[in-house]
């Protein structure tokens, strides 16, 4: 009788201990899953306001999809416009076992693409992903790369030049010879502008060092300057602005940040929105979708933006309907 009771007590104790252990392991398991941290590597090509804005958007896009705090660890590197740093930093991000990589601007995305064919890569604001040989087909990228493309509405930019400065006949295009993103924009601008009767002269600089001297030559030959979404020009834009101001000639850039820095006007895609879209796309991949299955998202609808201070300095009058729909900076 006594023995039976003892066995029952022992059995009860065993059941309680086993139950507690089982409960602990289950709760530990789910807790682990809840705090699982994803590792994301971000490579920015160079510092300029537009790319900084895109990176801010990327972090917010990831956050909106649940990747913030201890859910994500971002390793952020900036190559400061140095091509050899692009390469070493791309390899660093791969060797640190980041599970997803984001390249901000074309040269950064190209560096990452040559460093890995396995880890998924999201392009942040790459103007011409096909021309830059990053994907074969925007709708169906395949491989380990997808992302967001900022295709500025160049035809609208040319219409704006006509509307604001009808006397302009010759336009000088200033861009960097080393950026694939600029090549395709320059070709498109030239084609469309010549169709509208403009004379177009192209000036490619090898690096920021040649901008000042190139501007001197260019300004003696053209009535206005146009720059594409070019990282080299963007990172040294104050030099361009100073030269154009001395010559009293307008600059038409391709992004609002460069209009506020002293450009006259443009038709632009919102940089922060590009970043948010990039971050959200990265989140889709972190949740299990394959990069190659996600079509490249193209932003090609622009908003006009005008620098009123520069317009006044140049004696440019802004037509009333344009003033109404344009965003004004400064
Ligand atoms: N689209 C550019 C590229 O492909 C990057 C970029 C985004 C950019 N916004 C910009 C460059 C503004 C100059 C200015 O590399």
Report on this structure.
It comes from Streptococcus ferus. Pfam families: ABC_sub_bind. InterPro entries: ABC_SBP_TrpX-like (IPR047776), ABC_transpt-TYRBP-like (IPR007487), Peripla_BP_I (IPR028082). The chain is of the alpha/beta class and 330 residues long. It has two domains: 38-150 and 270-299, Rossmann fold (3-Layer(aba) Sandwich), CATH 3.40.50.2300; 154-268 and 303-328, 3-Layer(aba) Sandwich (Rossmann fold), CATH 3.40.50.2300. 48% of the residues lie in helices and 19% in strands. The chain contains 13 helices and 13 strands. The chain has helices at residues 2-34, 49-64, 83-95, 106-115, 154-164, 180-195, 211-219, 231-235, 237-247, 256-260, 271-286, 308-314, 320-325; strands spanning 38-44, 72-78, 100-104, 121-124, 145-150, 170-176, 199-205, 224-226, 251-252, 265-268, 297-299, 303-307, 327-329. A six-stranded parallel sheet has the order 2-1-3-4-5-11, sandwiched between helices. Strands 7-6-8-9 form a four-stranded parallel sheet, with helices on both faces. A three-stranded mixed sheet has the order 10-12-13. α2 links the parallel β1 and β2 (72-78). α2 packs across α11 (271-286) and α3 crosses α4 (106-115). The radius of gyration is 27 Å and the shape is elongated. It starts with a helix and ends with a strand. The relative contact order is 0.14. Mean pLDDT is 93; it is low at 25-33. Tryptophan binds at residues 50, 105-106, 125-127, 150, 181, 229-231, 234, 255, 271.
């Amino acid at each position: 009788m006594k023995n039976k009771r003892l066995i029952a007590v022992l059995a009860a104790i065993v059941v309680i201990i086993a139950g507690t252990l089982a409960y602990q392991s289950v709760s530990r398991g789910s807790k682990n899953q809840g705090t699982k941290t994803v590792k994301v590597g971000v490579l920015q090509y160079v510092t300029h306001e537009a790319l900084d804005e895109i990176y801010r958007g990327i972090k917010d896009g990831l956050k909106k999809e649940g990747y913030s705090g201890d859910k994500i660890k971002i390793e952020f590197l900036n190559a400061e416009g140095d091509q050899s740093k692009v390469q070493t930093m791309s390899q660093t991000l791969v060797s640190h076992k980041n599970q997803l990589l984001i390249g901000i601007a074309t040269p950064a995305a190209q560096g990452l693409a040559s460093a890995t064919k396995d880890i998924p890569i999201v392009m942040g604001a790459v103007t011409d992903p096909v021309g830059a040989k990053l994907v074969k087909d925007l709708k169906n990228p395949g491989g380990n790369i997808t992302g967001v493309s900022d295709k500025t509405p160049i035809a609208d930019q040319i219409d704006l030049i006509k509307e604001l400065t009808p006397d302009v006949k010759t336009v000088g295009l200033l861009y960097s010879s080393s950026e694939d993103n600029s090549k395709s924009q320059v070709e498109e601008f030239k084609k469309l502008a010549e169709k509208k009767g403009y004379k177009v002269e192209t000036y490619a600089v090898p690096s920021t060092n040649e901008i000042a001297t190139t501007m001197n030559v260019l300004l003696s030959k053209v009535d206005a300057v146009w720059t594409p979404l070019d990282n080299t020009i963007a990172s040294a834009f104050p030099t361009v602005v100073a030269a154009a101001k001395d010559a009293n000639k307008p600059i038409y850039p391709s992004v609002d940040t460069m209009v506020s820095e002293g450009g006259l006007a443009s038709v632009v895609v919102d940089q922060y929105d590009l970043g948010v879209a990039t971050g959200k796309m990265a989140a889709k991949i972190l949740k299990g979708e394959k990069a190659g299955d996600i079509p490249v998202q193209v932003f090609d609808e622009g908003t006009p933006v005008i620098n009123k201070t520069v317009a006044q300095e140049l004696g440019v009058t802004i037509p009333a309907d344009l003033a109404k729909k344009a965003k004004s900076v400064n």
